[in-house]
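A favour, since you know our structure tokens better than I do. Would you make up a two-line entry for one protein for me to read? Write everything out right here, beneath this request.
=====
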Amino acid sequence: MVFLCLFKTLFPYEQMYLLNQQLICNADQFKHAVITVGGQAVQYWISYYHAQYGDRLPDERLTTSVDCDYSARKDDIAAIAKTLNVKTWENKDGQPPSLAQFMLIDQDTHDIKRDDGRLFAVPDAPDEPNVVDIIDRPGGFDRSDFQGKALPVYRPVLCRSNRPRHA
């Protein structure tokens, strides 16, 4: 597809932001939480607290990824795909934690999804659609960690502001 080089590719964190906007606007369609995880979740955290850390930011290669990862439940996969207007490939026989993947190809146009002329593509390969991976849980967690209880959220900025200052 030669014509795709005419379009700018969205950065992965921009793709995640725009996908999250779509999911948030349609949150009433989901039975359970859909949680941003992986490198893009770390990127969100860093951008949110950027002012607190100034120029002491970690290497970008360590804090982001190309694909877009979500933790969700199987019974929400179809609703997520419908919201994003993409086709789903469920991992019925594969190994957990991957439940499904979506190629970011618009169901109506059959082309790579776009936002204002910008492509949801792999940054170094504008003719290759980016991928959304739906997992049942992030690495290091058990399924029971997400069932019937809330996870505590620690805010390092609050911890930093409550620490005694050293002269």
In short: The chain has five helices and ten strands. The helical segments are 12-25, 39-48, 50-53, 77-84, 156-162. Confidence is low (pLDDT under 50) at residues 155-167.
